[in-house]
Amino acid sequence: MNYLVTGGAGFIGSHIAEYLIDHGHDVTVVEYLFSGKKENIRHLFDNPHFHFVQGSITDSGLLKDTFKNADGIFHQAAIPSVPRSIENPAFETPLNIQGSIIDITEIQRMVRCAWHSRTHRRNREFM
After folding, report:
1. pLDDT less than 50: residues of the chain
2. Is 127 among the domain residues?
3. Pairing state between β 50-54 and 72-75
4. In CATH, what number is assigned to the domain containing residue 51?
């Protein structure tokens, strides 16, 4: 199966990506590299089942491209610092809230597409 991990270079996301690859799945990591680090996933870069996309979860066009082949999504992207969120809410809010809303919207679209394609002989008009 193909999985997408947002925030996949963070501590939790990198372990999810590694686990999925170790169990025979293809993984695409979308990472902004604000708090995530390439060092957490560097050992996966040579694996043919691993794909890295540097970008923001607030970029709906990027997410539409990366979500379209995903069978499942692990949404781990966030700014993990409460003090930073309080100090700079104008930067933190779009990433933590708007990014999650975009993810949820795309997931809902995927679920509708999967349901529609199963019930109407793989019609992909919603994709």
Report:
1. 113-127
2. no
3. unpaired
4. 3.40.50.720
